[in-house]
Design a protein that fits this description.
mainly beta, Methylamine Dehydrogenase, Chain H, 4-stranded antiparallel beta sheet, WD40/YVTN_repeat-like_dom_sf, repeat
């Protein structure tokens, strides 16, 4: 089973991440975690620069932020906070500047938390989990506002708010896409067998009229966000599982990332 194999692979990655985390001990400002790669060999000026010639500057770091693999992180709309969701079943909200913990919810779900996101106004957080439950939280104290148990018949892999904050879209291992009212988590629409394999990523367009989905069936699809009618699709968009999809800010392009190691931009 592709999904089971993928879960096992992620579990192995989590074990490796835990081992690495145990070697870290503190929070630190990260001038010294700046990555300065070796000087590249002389190249023909007309050839493109090597990717490893770029500098990546770490401005803040939080070691042992969770006790297990962190699967999802997201900025608040105003850019002052970060939310994180982990295999340790915990959701945490951090101050961006110093990565100081502002609030946390232990046992937020009964299993691995796969996806977290802020609402457009920053007052709420949505989370999805292996426990097949979607929950909405107050972003300040992480008090639960609403939940939907058995939201899907399989692991919930991706959740996202609509641009106006009134809806939530979810994608699942059960191959289904669902759209929910964000206040009471009442089901508004659903598309069963939206893909032939697990749906790994879903996102609204900036104007809220469309939803893009990416799947382990290597296909990208665009849907009408109201009735979930298929508007367009790209089969064999990648040579392996599609792990993440997103719209550009103006809604004219879609970016996709895949297990095959490639990033692609689509019109």
């Amino acid at each position: 089973n592709v999904c089971v194999g993928a879960i096992a692979a992620r579990a192995l990655q989590g074990a490796r991440a835990r081992s690495a985390a145990r070697r870290a001990q503190r929070v630190r400002r990260c001038d010294r975690c700046t990555r300065t790669p070796h000087r590249p060999r002389t190249r023909n000026p007309s050839s493109p620069p090597r990717m490893n010639a770029m500098l990546i500057n770490c401005v803040a770091e939080k070691t042992i932020a969770h006790s297990d693999t962190i699967r999802s992180v997201a900025f608040s709309p105003d850019g002052t906070k970060i939310v994180s969701g982990s295999d340790d079943k915990t959701i945490k909200v951090w101050d961006l500047a110093k990565l100081e913990l502002l609030s946390e919810k232990t046992n937020a779900h009964s299993s691995v938390i796969t996806s977290v996101a802020f609402s457009p106004d920053g007052t709420k957080i949505v989370s999805g989990s292996y426990d097949e439950t979607i929950k909405v939280w107050d972003s300040g104290k992480l008090e639960m506002l609403s939940e939907k148990t058995n939201a899907h018949s399989g692991i919930i892999m991706s959740v996202a708010f609509s641009p106006d904050g009134t809806k939530i879209v979810s994608g699942s291992y059960d191959k289904t896409i669902k759209v929910w009212d964000s206040d009471k988590l009442e089901l508004l629409s659903e598309k069963t067998n939206a893909h032939s394999k697990c749906i790994n990523s879903v996102a609204f367009s900036p104007d809220g009229t469309k939803i893009v989905s990416g799947s382990w069936d290597k296909t990208i699809k665009v849907w009408d966000s109201v009735k979930l009618e298929l508007l367009s699709e790209k089969t064999n968009a990648h040579s392996n599982w599609i792990m993440s999809v997103a719209f550009s800010p103006d809604g004219t392009k879609i970016v996709s990332g895949s297990y095959d190691g490639t990033i692609k931009v689509w019109d």
